[in-house]
Write a structure and sequence with these properties.
The protein is α+β, with helices and mostly antiparallel strands. Helices cover about 70% and strands about 10% of the residues. Helix 3 packs antiparallel against helix 5.
């Protein structure tokens, strides 16, 4: 069975990793999507990550790695720059999505362009999703930064893990009810299972 290797290179001292699964997923999306909705979703993700990168450069935070993988784009930086700087970096992605949402909505209101409405909606949805208090998302990063002002790291991690599990469990229950009784799309349940797996993997990595 062939082994898939990540593409790896450096730009200005930052290691870039590109998973072949990420490339395959990107190709499938571009080939299958005839409506352009998935492309707008990918564009929203790029806008989101650009927000993080912008505030990293603005606060002179040094990039360590940028990992393009099937689960998303993971950006890691070196060290702790201080609460205010790290807060700006954590909120930067959602801030850029919010700006894109406003611009897209204005274009739709002004020109009645359906693509603008889809673009605006994709950015708004991604912003709300990333603000959820789940490990691995920006919302939990903001909570973690706030807690670190009062508690030691070990206690903060335990609190964040508990919040993440509770939020996912409650969301799962509401989603299950919505799917069973109101016949809504079950994709939200799949997404929550994925986030639960990411949370467990993140906890395991911190323990190891």
């Amino acid at each position: 069975m062939p082994i898939l290797f990540n593409m790896e290179f450096k730009i200005l001292g930052c290691k870039i990793f590109i998973s072949p699964l990420f490339v395959a997923f990107l190709c499938v999306v571009l080939l299958v999507d005839k409506t352009g909705v998935m492309v707008l979703g990918l564009l929203s993700v790029l806008i989101h990550e650009s927000g993080h990168l912008f505030f990293m450069f603005l606060t002179k935070k040094k990039l360590e790695t940028v990992n393009f993988q099937l689960g998303g784009i993971i950006i890691k930086s070196k060290g702790f720059s201080g609460y205010k700087y790290d807060f700006l970096v954590a909120i930067g992605g959602c801030f850029f999505n919010f700006l894109a949402f406003i611009i897209g909505f204005f274009c739709y209101y002004r020109f009645e362009n359906e693509i603008s409405l889809l673009f605006s909606s994709a950015n708004f949805a991604l912003m709300v999703f990333n603000l959820a208090p789940i490990c691995g998302l920006d919302g939990m990063d903001l909570i973690r930064l706030k807690l670190l002002l009062k508690y030691p790291l070990e206690k903060v991690e335990k609190i964040c893990n508990a919040i993440s599990f509770i939020f996912i469990a409650i969301s799962f229950c509401f989603s299950a009810v919505a799917v069973i009784f109101f016949h809504l799309n079950p994709s939200i349940i799949i997404c929550l299972i994925y986030l639960l797996i990411l949370t467990i993997i993140g906890i395991k990595k911190r323990i190891d």
